[in-house]
Amino acid sequence: MASHVALLRVPPPLSISTQRFHAKQICINGLKLTNTSSSSSSSSCFPCSITTQRGSCSSVITCSSSNGRDPNSVDEEDVKQVERILEEKRRAALSAKIASGEFTVKQKSGLLSIMEGLAKVGVPNEVLEFLFGWFEGGGEHPKIPEAKGSIKAVRSVAFFIPLYELYLTYGGIFRLTFGPKSFLIVSDPSIAKHILRENSKAYSKGILAEILDFVMGKGLIPADGEIWRVRRRAIVPALHQKYVAAMIGLFGQAADRLCQKLDAAASDGEDVEMESLFSRLTLDIIGKAVFNYDFDSLSNDTGIVEAVYTVLREAEDRSVAPIPVWEIPIWKDVSPRLRKVNAALKLINDTLDDLIAICKRMVDEEELQFHEEYMNEQDPSILHFLLASGDDVSSKQLRDDLMTMLIAGHETSAAVLTWTFYLLSKEPRVMSKLQEEVDSVLGDQYPTIEDMKKLKYTTRVINESLRLYPQPPVLIRRSLEDDVLGEYPIKRNEDIFISVWNLHRSPKLWDDADKFEPERWALDGPSPNETNQNFKYLPFGGGPRKCVGDLFASYETVVALAMLVRRFNFQIAVGAPPVSLVLCRYIFKL
Q1: Residue 143 has what DSSP assignment?
Q2: 258 contacts 400 by C-beta, under 8 angstroms
Q3: Where does heme bind (predicted)?
Q4: FRET pair for 377, CA 20 to 30 Å: which of 113, 165, 175, 308?
Q5: What pLDDT band is residue 262 in, cutting at 50, 70 and 90?
Q6: How confident is residue 41, by pLDDT bands cut at 50, 70 and 90?
Q7: Is the peptide bond before 486 cis (omega within 30 degrees of 0)?
Q8: Angle CA 111–114–120, to nearest 5
Q9: For residue 361, is it within any domain?
């Protein structure tokens, strides 16, 4: 039975069907899935929904037989053309807002008023120009371009989208001002390199640490200074080659459980929300990899799983909240949402405390000697490595570290997989090429560490997906001292957004910047990173605070992608409105 499973939501449903040699199928915009076990078919239709971690995708999905085409379906090229037209209209509308002053309203400064007064009393223009340049530019440096306006102009879209339009207007660095609050927006690779690597000690995580303190404490993401250096030195050795090789097996087992769930759903004709499944897949992986806990969220909804998602949603909400109401003392006691969050945190912390205690007993009883590539076969987790290494740290600090890795390594990977399958669903040529490589390299076997070197095109698909939909789309920093960015001086305590989205989609930096083209990365060349791309490509950040789990995350998504496309094919459901980002929520990297 070649059943179909919906991925993205859409009203009203239309249907489309296709056929492939192995009968692999799915749909996004919605994504539609057909299992590969049979050539016979049945027809059914079921809309479903998906929300990515950085935004919300809304579209139509329907399912039908794989043996024929629905008469109501529309040509895929027509859909792509409609999407292009709507995207051009959206950009044009936003550009018009910028040009009209609705968003970037230049306000007359006091200095300009004084200069106009001096001109009226006869002060020569040469003197006025000298004075204006001296005071406005500090006498030596030009002033950073500034965009002022109302936040209502960007509330209806993911906020990094208008940042892109503003970048095209104002350039690689500009100041974005909303009332009394301002941010520096950086979209220049040389300035990003200066902040992230060349002068990284002069910058902290700033408001990001403040937002995430309730859940991560002094974990590796929010920590700064000596605490961050000590914790990074402790954690990085745990990600050694033997550990990563063991994790490849874990990734394969978890992905196989997802495939079995999809097979069952396809056979039963059930609706499936794929982003939710990707989220559960990565939660199960990170639980075992970090602290040897099996959430089993692909099969069960337990209290601890719900608690994790409650905390994740709260962290996401706080990252975009305009007012930190959670800091109001009385609000913590009267808000049902915060009471639920606090209860969830207590459950998670109690669970982690129990896991730490169990792991400590296991370490005390084992006879293995600790060494550089130490790994307990029964419990290869990072927690076990840290305890066996004699890491002298409190249980509270361990909890902070574990929670940080749980959050940083969970939703980001789920979002990468979601957007990758969306992109593949629009490019059957890429999907076909990808499946050919996977069939050739893996056959019917689980991937191994040796296979990672052979899955070159699969890796390039993930690389390109991360370019178009980086996780996260911005990196946050705060200046700890005065500095110079490019030609512009900045003061201490400047909040800075490095727009990875802008860097990755800049027409000045990339040919066909908006095109999904894995071939832009040579198969016989090194995997693209911030160094060999000179900081125009920052999927895992850069410099000393680059994500410590970059190799882990890359292998995780490559394995999941390979195992899914080996069993299923993905295709856009025709007739749906285009996928769009309508909400931006961020979980940031280390």
Answers
A1: P
A2: no
A3: 547
A4: 308
A5: confident
A6: very low
A7: no
A8: 145
A9: yes
Question: Binding site: residue ranges?
Answer: 547
Residue 464 lies in a domain: yes
Structural domain of 272: 214-567
Q: Which residues of 262-296 are buried (b: 16+ CB within 10 A; e: fewer)?
A: bbebbeebbbbbbbbbbbbbbbbbbbbbbbbbebb
- Contact (CB, 8 A) for 104 and 46: no
The H or E element that residue 413 is part of is helix 411-426
CA pair distance 375, 388, nearest whole angstrom: 9
* Residue 390 belongs to domain with CATH number: 1.10.630.10
Phi/psi of residue 572, nearest 5 degrees: -70, 135
For residue 52, is it within any domain? no
From start to end of 386-487, where are the E strands?
474-479, 483-485
Percent of the chain topping pLDDT 70: 71
Contacting residues for 88 by C-beta, under 8 A, at least 6 apart: none
Angle between helix 241-268 and helix 550-567 axes, rounded to 10 deg: 30
Please state, in angstroms and as integers, the Cα–Cα distance from residue 99 to each residue in 82, 92, 169, 339, following that order.
Answer: 25, 10, 9, 45
pTM over 0.85: no
Provide the 10 A C-beta neighbour count for residue 24: 25
* Cα distance between residue 555 and residue 327, in whole Å: 39
Q: Is residue 327, in this structure, part of any structural domain at all?
A: yes
* pLDDT value of position 584: 40
Among the listed residues 538, 570, 568, the one whose alpha carbon sits nearest the alpha carbon of residue 262: 568
Q: Indicate if the pLDDT at residue 278 is higher than 80.
A: yes
d(CA 205, CA 184): 14
**Euclidean distance between CA atoms 587 and 52, whole angstroms:** 12
Token code pair at residue 544: 């000393």
| Rounded alpha-carbon distances, angstroms, from residue 266 to 11, 16, 32, 272 | 21, 16, 10, 9
Mean pLDDT, range 533-540, rounded to an integer: 97
- 299: which 2 tokens? 């099969």
Number of domains, the chain:
1
Strand 474-479 versus strand 203-204 pairing type: antiparallel
Higher pLDDT, 38 or 222: 222
Cα(475)–Cα(478) distance, integer angstroms: 10
Task: Please state, as a whole number, how many other Cβ atoms lie within 10 Å of the Cβ of residue 78.
Answer: 11
Flag whether pLDDT at 321 surpasses 80.
no
- 582: amino acid identity, one letter: V
Q: Please give the structure tokens belonging to residue 407.
A: 């959050």
Annotated binding site for heme: 547
